[in-house]
C-alpha cells in the first residue's frame, strides 16, 4: 500500500491512528482528579510532540542512516522559523506559504553549511556544525537584529504589509490560519468528567508529521537510503565500489535540514513568534537526545524520543513540592517530609536530572533506545513475530 | 600494449623512496602477480593504481586513459575493482544488500538519488544480485548480517561484490593473508574459476608463494621500490637474483 511493504504500512497506519486519537489517548485522567496533571492532551503540548517529532525524524535521516552527528540542527529550525514569520509579515497569515518557504530557506542554508562541514567527518564534522549553529545564533541575536528582531524576536504586527491579506481592523490581532481556519481554534468536548480538546493547529501539524513520516519510510527503504547506510557502515568500500559518498551525505544533510526547517515553520504557524534562543546549541543537543533515546536509525524511535522528552519537559517540570506533599499525605509526618525531600530534586526544575538518568540508563542497558525496549518487552511476552520497528506504546506517550 | 601500463612511477614519503622507477605492463586477460619482500613497495604501487595515492613521477594508464588525479570512485567506474587485505564489506548490511550496492553502482553510476523507490522492487538489480550470490555459493546467507560471516566468506563476498561490477581489472591485495589453509585453497579455486569463466585481467599482490604459483601467468618481483625481474613463474622460480632477494628465505621458511 502506498508503495510500502505490509509491515511498514501497518506501522504508518498505527502512527496515524495514534496521532489522530491523541486528544483522547493523552487525556486518560478525568478533570479535577489528582492525576489530571499527567494529562498531556492539551493543544500546546500535542503540537510540540508532533513538531519535535518531525525535527527528530529528519535528524534521524542524517544521524541514523549516515552516522554523521550534527550538533547544529537547531540552526535550520531557527532559520525556518524566521523565514516563516517573514512570510506572515510580508505576504499572508495563511500558514501554507510560511511552511513552504521555511522548508526552502532551511534547505538552501543547510546546503551551504553541509557543503563546508562535510569536508570533514567524525568529531570534526560535529564541531563544524556546532560552530555554524552558534554563529547563526549569535548573528541572529546581535548583528542581524534588523532581520531577526535580536533579543526581542519577531511577531506579526497589525501594521505589517501582508500584501495578500486585507487590512486588519484597528486593534485586531493577526492570527495564523489555514484559509480562514485559525490555528488556535479548538473544539472542546466534555464527556462525563473528561474534557477533550481538538485543536485545528494540532491536526494540521499532525497531518504534516504523517506526511513527513511516510516520506522518511520511503527514504529508508530506497536505494538512496541503503547508500546512506553504506556510508555509515564502510565508506572505504563505498568509494572503491564506484560510489561518491559526498553527494549522498550532502543530500541526506539537506533533507534533514529541510525537515528541521519544516518543524521551525510549523512552530511559527502554531505560535506566531520566534526568538534566537531557538537556535541555541542546547536545542541542537536536544534533538540528538531524542534520536538516541528513541532509537537511532529506527523509523519510529525518534518520534518516541521526542514525545518522551517533551512529555517530561512539560509534565514532570510542573510537579512541585506542594503536589508531592498531597501525594504522600498518607505517610506519617516525618516520613512524608523525608520522601518528599528525596524525590524533590527529580521533579520541577530538576526534571533534567531525571532525563539525564533515564538517558544514561537507556544508553547503557538499551543501546537501541526505547524501540529496543519495546522489542524486548514484546519478546518477553512470547510473541515470536520478529519486528524491528514496532513501538510497544507502553514506555512513552504516543506522539 | 597492456591494459595497465605503469611508466616510471616514483613515490617518496619524506626521506623514504617507497617506489623508485617502476615500469609495469599487465597484459589483458592474464593473471599478473607482484611479489616482493616486506617494504618492497607493493602496497604503495597498488595504492597508486586505485587513486589512494598520487605518484610523484611517472604515469599510470588504464586502457589508454590516465588514472592519475582521479578519485578512487572514478577509477573504479573506469573498470578497476580492488579487493583489500582485510575484507572490506558493509558489515551493518545484509549479504543481499552488500551485493546490491555494486549492482546499483554499475548501472546508475557514482550518484543517483532515487529516494522514492523500494530497492527490493528493482527487479533488474535484485535478479543480478541474486545471480551473483548464486555464483558465489552464498544464496543461503542472503539475509544474514554480513559482519557475522567467517573471514573466508567475507572474502568471497568481497570478491563477488567486485565481480558484480564486471570490472576489466581486478586488483587483489594479499587476498589470503591471515587465512587458514582450507580457506586459502578455497580462495585459490575461486580465483581460478573466475579466471576461466570471465574475460578479466587479475593483478595480485601476495606473500604466499603457493598462491602465486598456483595462479600467476606473469610475475613481477619488486625489491626496494624497483622491479627486479618480470617473467613467467617457471623462470622466476629458478632466477638467481630473485632467490637472493626474496625466494630463498621464504621458501625455506615455508
Task: Outline the structure in words.
- The complex is a heterodimer of chains A (399) and B (254).
- Chain A is mainly alpha-helical and 399 residues long.
- Chain A has a domain at 15-280: ABC transporter involved in vitamin B12 uptake, BtuC.
- Chain A has helices at residues 6-20, 22-25, 43-66, 73-90, 95-117, 122-141, 145-148, 200-221, 223-233, 235-239, 245-270, 281-294, 301-314, 321-327, 333-343, 351-365, 369-380; strands at 177-178, 181-182, 186-191, 194-199.
- Residues 250-254 of chain B have low confidence and may be disordered.
- Chain B has two domains: 1-79 and 169-254, Rossmann fold, CATH 3.40.50; 90-166, no CATH class.
- Chain B starts with a strand and ends with a helix.
Reconstruct the topology from this structure.
The complex is a heterodimer of chains A (399) and B (254).
Chain A: H1 6-20, H2 22-25, H3 43-66, H4 73-90, H5 95-117, H6 122-141, H7 145-148, E1 177-178, E2 181-182, E3 186-191, E4 194-199, H8 200-221, H9 223-233, H10 235-239, H11 245-270, H12 281-294, H13 301-314, H14 321-327, H15 333-343, H16 351-365, H17 369-380
Helix pairs in contact in A: 1-8, 3-8, 3-9, 3-11, 3-12, 3-13, 4-5, 4-6, 4-11, 5-6, 5-11, 8-9, 8-11, 9-11, 12-13
Chain B: E1 4-13, E2 16-26, E3 31-35, H1 42-50, E4 57-62, E5 65-66, H2 72-78, E6 80-83, H3 95-108, H4 123-135, H5 151-164, E7 169-173, H6 181-197, E8 201-205, H7 209-215, E9 218-223, E10 226-231, H8 233-238, H9 240-253
Parallel strand pairs in B: 3-8, 3-9, 6-7, 7-8
Antiparallel strand pairs in B: 1-2, 1-4, 4-5, 9-10
Structure summary:
The complex is a heterodimer of chains A (399) and B (254). Chain A is mainly α.
pLDDT averaged over residues of chain B: 90
Termini separation of chain B comes to 36 Å
Counting DSSP H or I runs of 4 or more residues, the number of helices of chain B is: 9
Overall pLDDT score of chain A: 91
CA-based shape of chain B: globular
Q: What's the end-to-end separation of chain A, in Å?
A: 23 Å
What fold name goes in the CATH topology slot of the domain at 15-280 in chain A?
Answer: ABC transporter involved in vitamin B12 uptake, BtuC
Kindly provide the radius of gyration of chain A, computed on alpha-carbon positions and rounded to a whole number of angstroms.
22 Å
| Strand order, largest beta sheet of chain A | 1-2
Helix content of chain A: 55-70%
What is the level 1 CATH name of the largest domain in chain B? Alpha Beta
Which stretches of chain A are low in confidence, meaning pLDDT under 50 for 5 or more residues running? Answer: 386-399
Amino acid at each position: 500500500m502506498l508503495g510500502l511493504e505490509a509491515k511498514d504500512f501497518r506501522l504508518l497506519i498505527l502512527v496515524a491512528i495514534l496521532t489522530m486519537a491523541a486528544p483522547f489517548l493523552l487525556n486518560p485522567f478525568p478533570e479535577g482528579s489528582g492525576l489530571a496533571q499527567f494529562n498531556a492532551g492539551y493543544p500546546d503540548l500535542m503540537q510540540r510532540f508532533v513538531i519535535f517529532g518531525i525535527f527528530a525524524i529528519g535528524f534521524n535521516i542524517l544521524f541514523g542512516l549516515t552516522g554523521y552527528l550534527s550538533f547544529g540542527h537547531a540552526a535550520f529550525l531557527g532559520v525556518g522559523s524566521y523565514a516563516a514569520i517573514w512570510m506572515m509579515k510580508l505576504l499572508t497569515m495563511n500558514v501554507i506559504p510560511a511552511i513552504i518557504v521555511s522548508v526552502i530557506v532551511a534547505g538552501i542554508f543547510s546546503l551551504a553549511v553541509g557543503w563546508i562541514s562535510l569536508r570533514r567527518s567524525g568529531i570534526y564534522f560535529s564541531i563544524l556544525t556546532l560552530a555554524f549553529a552558534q554563529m547563526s545564533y549569535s548573528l541572529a541575536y546581535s548583528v542581524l537584529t534588523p532581520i531577526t528582531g535580536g533579543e526581542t524576536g519577531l511577531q506579526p504586527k497589525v501594521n505589517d504589509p501582508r500584501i495578500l491579506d486585507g487590512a486588519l481592523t484597528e486593534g485586531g490581532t493577526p492570527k495564523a490560519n489555514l484559509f480562514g481556519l485559525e490555528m488556535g481554534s479548538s473544539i472542546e468536548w466534555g464527556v462525563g468528567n473528561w474534557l477533550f480538546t481538538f485543536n485545528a493547529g494540532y491536526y494540521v501539524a499532525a497531518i504534516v508529521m504523517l506526511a513527513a513520516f511516510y516520506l522518511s519510510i520511503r527514504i529508508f527503504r530506497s536505494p538512496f537510503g541503503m547508500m546512506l547506510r553504506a556510508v555509515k557502515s564502510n565508506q572505504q568500500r563505498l568509494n572503491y565500489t564506484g560510489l561518491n559518498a559526498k553527494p549522498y551525505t550532502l543530500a541526506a544533510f539537506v533533507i534533514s535540514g529541510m525537515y528541521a526547517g519544516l518543524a521551525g515553520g510549523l512552530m511559527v504557524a502554531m505560535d506566531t513568534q520566534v526568538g534566537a534562543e531557538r537556535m541555541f546549541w542546547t536545542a541542537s543537543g536536544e534533538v540528538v537526545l531524542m534520536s538516541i533515546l528513541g532509537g537511532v536509525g529506527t523509523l519510529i524511535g525518534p518520534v518516541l524520543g521526542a514525545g518522551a522528552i517533551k512529555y517530561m519537559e512539560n509534565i514532570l517540570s510542573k510537579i512541585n513540592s506542594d503536589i508531592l506533599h498531597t501525594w504522600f499525605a498518607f505517610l506519617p509526618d516525618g516520613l512524608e517530609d523525608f520522601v518528599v525531600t528525596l524525590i524533590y530534586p527529580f521533579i520541577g526544575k530538576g526534571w533534567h536530572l531525571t532525563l539525564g538518568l533515564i538517558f544514561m540508563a537507556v544508553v547503557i542497558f538499551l543501546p537501541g533506545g526505547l524501540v529496543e525496549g519495546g522489542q524486548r518487552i514484546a519478546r518477553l511476552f512470547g510473541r515470536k513475530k520478529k519486528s524491528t520497528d514496532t513501538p510497544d506504546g507502553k514506555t512513552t506517550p504516543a506522539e | 600494449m597492456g591494459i595497465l601500463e605503469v611508466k616510471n612511477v616514483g613515490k617518496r614519503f619524506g626521506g623514504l623512496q617507497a617506489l623508485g622507477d617502476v615500469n609495469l605492463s599487465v597484459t589483458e586477460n592474464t593473471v599478473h602477480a607482484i611479489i616482493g619482500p616486506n617494504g618492497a613497495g607493493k602496497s604503495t604501487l597498488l595504492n597508486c593504481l586505485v587513486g589512494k595515492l598520487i605518484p610523484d613521477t611517472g604515469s599510470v594508464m588504464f586502457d589508454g586513459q590516465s588514472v592519475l588525479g582521479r578519485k578512487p570512485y572514478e577509477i573504479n567506474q573506469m573498470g578497476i575493482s580492488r579487493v583489500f587485505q582485510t575484507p572490506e564489506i558493509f558489515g551493518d548490511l545484509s549479504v543481499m544488500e552488500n551485493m546490491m550496492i555494486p549492482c546499483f553502482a554499475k548501472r546508475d553510476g557514482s550518484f543517483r538519488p532515487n529516494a522514492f523507490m523500494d530497492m527490493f522492487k528493482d527487479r533488474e538489480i535484485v535478479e543480478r544480485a541474486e545471480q551473483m550470490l548464486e555464483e558465489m555459493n552464498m544464496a543461503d546467507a542472503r539475509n544474514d548480517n554480513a559482519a557475522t560471516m567467517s573471514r573466508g566468506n567475507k572474502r568471497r563476498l568481497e570478491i563477488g561484490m567486485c565481480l558484480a561490477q564486471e570490472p576489466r581489472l581486478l586488483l587483489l591485495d594479499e587476498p589470503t593473508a591471515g587465512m587458514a589453509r582450507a580457506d586459502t585453497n578455497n580462495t585459490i579455486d575461486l580465483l581460478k574459476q573466475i579466471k576461466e569463466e570471465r574475460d578479466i585481467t587479475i593483478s595480485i599482490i601476495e606473500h604466499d608463494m603457493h598462491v602465486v604459483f598456483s595462479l600467476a601467468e606473469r610475475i613481477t618481483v619488486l625489491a626496494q621500490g624497483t622491479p627486479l625481474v618480470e617473467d613467467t613463474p617457471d623462470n622466476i622460480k629458478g632466477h638467481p637474483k630473485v632467490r637472493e632477494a626474496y625466494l630463498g628465505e621464504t621458501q625455506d621458511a615455508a
